[in-house]
Amino acid sequence: MTTETAKQTIDAELSVPAPVELPPVGEEVNLDASENYFNRELSQLQFNYRVLKQALDTTHPLINRLIFCCIFSSNMDEFFEIRVAGLRQQMKYGRETVGVDGMQPDQVLAEISRVAHEYIHEQYDILNNVLIPELEQENIHFVRRREWTPAQAEWVRTYFEEEILPVVSPIGLDPSHPFPRLVNKSLNFIVELDGKDAFGRETGMAILPAPRSLPRLVRLPDEVCEGGENLVFLSSMIHAHADELFPGMEVKGCYQFRLTRNADLELEDDLEDLASALRGELLSRRFGDGVRLEVADNCPEELVQFLLREFGLTERDLYQVHGPVNLTRLMAVGGLVDRPDLTYSSFSPSIPRQIRSKESMFDAIRKRPILLLHPYENFSPVVDLLRQAAKDPNVLAIRQTLYRTGADSEIVEALADAARRGKEVTVVIELRARFSEAENLELASRLQEAGVIVVYGVVGYKTHAKMILIVRREEGRLRRYVHLGTGNYHAGNARLYTDYSFMTCDESIGDDVNKLFQQLTGMGKALKIKKLFHAPFTLHNRLISLIEREASYGDKGRIIFKFNALTEPQMIKALYRASQAGAKVDLIIRGICCLRPEVPGLSDNIRVRSVIGRFLEHTRMYYFGNNGRPEVYCSSADGMERNLLHRVETAFPVEEPALVARLREDLDTYLADNCQAWVLQPDGSYIQNQPAEGEEPFASQLVLLERLTSKPV
Fold first, then answer.
1. How many domains is the chain partitioned into structurally?
2. Are 494 and 567 members of one domain?
3. How far is the C-alpha of 419 from the C-alpha of 424, rounded, in Å?
4. Chain segment 297-354, per-residue pLDDT in tens
5. Where does this protein hold ATP (predicted)?
6. What is the pLDDT of residues 92-107, one digit of tens each?
7. Which of 16, 217, 260, 416 is 20 to 30 A from 185, comparing alpha carbons?
8. Nearest Cα to 288, choosing from 258, 327, 260?
9. In Å, what is the CA distance from 628 to each residue of 427, 433, 522, 588, 631?
């Protein structure tokens, strides 16, 4: 299949919410009607599909297209581990809940299965018929067993005997060896056997877990190849030598499979020790209930049915794939081959002149607030601020929230250094940051050992706000310096995610952040906040109020929101009302969107777009035209119930006219995108923007690279 044919296949009509009968224009619309909302889970699936589509976009380098294919797998893993698992739990315990879209959990699960099977089939079609052939044209080969030369086969045998055989543990199935409890998402093989083992047992079947410590892809050495980059799968090596694991028996077949389990953690709200409870739950995550079974498509039907019975799954949960069962591991290709021409060119994030010209971050911030857009602008000023604070004798205290920060974080080192130097350092660590729990437990221990006061936030409310507060003595008085952000304090993410950093010494904002830390670390009633909006107390109500204000301006109303997801019904209704009043609404929503746009009488004036590209769009911003006096807020919060009502979040105003203008320019850049933007249709489908005839291509991320980086590419 050619690339163009594959594109036509993918562009074929896919699953979208069924058309609904809408009231005639002029009739009153019931904002509570289920047909006015898209289903959350199905919308998330569509985002995953937009990521997969990047694998066919030839404006991306080839290896990065392969990585997009892998990211789709990773996204689908989490979707099944959390979202599908949650729906199955509702069914299991009779706790079915119906969302504003009106779909029952069993209906959603059935539709998820139908759509996910379709998408995953397309994924393997793209891999096998587009990406692998194009990689071969670039002399990058996945060498199959049938293609091994004698020299390659001998090298594989040596590798198997020295690296695989000593650590692999085959498990024969018999009454004394029941089916093993397999780890979530681990690669395994079911092996058909004939004959008797050393004890005279005739089992007929064995399970072979692939050692998790071994790479799934191995580069063949140049001396056994005739040029190019040659890679071999671990699964191929195990298949080729499976008989050596069962001496004296005949291996009739060896087939890959992989089980995805429920990986959501369930913690009670009245815990006495959150850290201890979380450690216990982390152990159970690896062995939760099964939610999906992936099996090689050549596996015999009787073995497939055997596995389904063992895991308590049905045909709806079965995904038979033509290729490796875990494509996420193909991300390793970029590190195994030396082909920089097939990956994104590097660029140098810029540092604003205001910071470069000042030795002290404190001097720069006092002069005027600093706004950075990562990854186009460097994350290092944030790290420098903490480093300087740690060493500055005039700094008395540092407080910070940490959600995800990475194992080897310079920020953590700076905090520990500050504590060792005798400063009062308090860190609020969110232990329940999904899939970072173990890392955050370790991080908490490291900081405590350095003398940092570690707080685990508020039970029942994840601390998702991104805040640093530094208290410094200057000229006989105390001044507060603040960093507020839309993204995590993670240097790696800051190279891949788009996020805003805002640094200021505004007295009111400093006082607000101080009060927020008091609420997080102490106890008492919610304190009055001047400039910041904060969840779960004021953020939701204030945003609704500002939307209603724009609605009051009629056709002069202007709203632009940019965030990752929109699911909260009251916000959606407020946006519908604003549209009906004539206000113009643009929503730049990367992922889930439950709002149905451009429906006559309901949302005529609402446009929704999703931008997918090299960087993961992660900035959250709320822009209100305010009748010519624009107000803009950046935030840690998305438009979801959990963010607005059940988490600790902040939204902070950016008030300086030059920075407001800059943020509006950024928003306009996304709204002008005719390459990377996908526009949500009233029926729930997305159509990728294309330049009109005679129109120049305009890719927002590329434009921002050229505008903001010191070495644009």
1. 4
2. no
3. 6
4. 999 999 999 999 999 999 999 999 999 998 999 999 999 999 999 999 999 999 988 8
5. 75, 497, 590, 618
6. 888 888 989 999 999 9
7. 16
8. 260
9. 40, 40, 41, 21, 9
404 annotated among ligand-binding-site residues: yes
Residues 6+ away with beta carbon under 8 Å from 413: none
On the CB side of 287, CA atoms within 13 Å amount to 7
Q: Is 596 annotated as a binding residue?
A: no
Distance between first and last Cα of the chain: 32
Phi, psi of 153 (to 5 degrees): -60, -40
Q: Can you list the positions of beta strands (E) in 403-458?
A: 424-429, 453-455
* Residue 689 labeled ligand binder: no
Q: Is 590 annotated among the ligand-binding residues?
A: yes
Any domain includes 420? yes
| Helix and strand totals (H; E) in the chain | 22, 27
How much is the pTM? 0.90
Query: Look-up: residue for tokens 């005679």?
Result: 694
Does residue 434 have a known ligand-binding role?
Answer: yes
Distance between CA atoms of residues 188 and 170, nearest Å: 10
Question: Looking at residue 206, what DSSP letter applies?
Answer: E
Residue with tokens 């602008």: 377
3-class SS at 177?
strand
Residues 407 and 310 in one domain: no
State the DSSP H helix or E strand holding residue 551, giving kind and residue range, or none if neither. helix 539-552
Catalytic center residues: 464
Return the bridge partners of 559, or none: 585, 624
Structure tokens at 656: 């300086």
Whole-angstrom distance, CA of residue 106 vs CA of residue 457: 35
Q: Alpha-carbon distance 25 to 699, whole Å? A: 36
Any residues with CB less than 8 A from the CB of 133 and at least 6 apart, and which? none
What SS3 class is residue 563? strand
Question: What residues have CB less than 8 Å from 280, skipping those under 6 apart?
Answer: none
For 341-368, write each residue's pLDDT tens digit: 999 999 999 998 888 776 799 999 999 9
- Identify the CATH number of the domain in which residue 680 sits: 3.30.870.10
In a domain, 380, yes or no: yes
Longest dimension (CA), the chain: 87
Provide long-range contacts, Cβ within 8 A and 24+ apart, for 651-658. 651/532, 651/533, 651/534, 651/539, 651/542, 651/543, 651/622, 652/484, 652/502, 652/509, 652/531, 652/532, 653/531, 653/532, 654/369, 654/371, 654/502, 656/368, 656/369
Distance CA 586, CA 608 (A): 6
CA torsion through residues 577, 637, 284, 492, sign:
positive
**Do both 512 and 615 map to the same domain?**
no
Contact 546, 515 (CB under 8 A): no
What's the Rg (C-alpha) of the chain?
27
Whether residue 235 contacts residue 256, with contact meaning beta carbons closer than 8 Å, is answered with yes
Query: Do 517 and 542 lie in a common domain?
Result: no
Q: Which of 45-54, 514-523, 671-680 has the lowest mean pLDDT?
A: 514-523
- Tell me whether residue 618 is annotated as binding: yes
**CA 592, 575, 653, 712: dihedral to nearest 10 degrees?**
50
Given pLDDT bands bounded at 50, 70 and 90, which one contains residue 263? confident
Residue 287 structural domain: 142-338
Q: Are 633 and 651 in contact (CB under 8 A)?
A: yes
Peptide bond preceding 23 in cis form (omega within 30 of 0): no
> What φ, ψ does residue 546 adopt, rounded to 5°?
-70, -35
Q: With CA atoms as reference, report the closest residue to 463 among 480, 483, 488.
A: 488
**Paired tokens of 60:** 């991306």
Q: Three-state secondary structure along 570-595?
A: HHHHHHHHHHHCCCEEEEEECCCECE
DSSP H or E segment with residue 497: strand 497-504
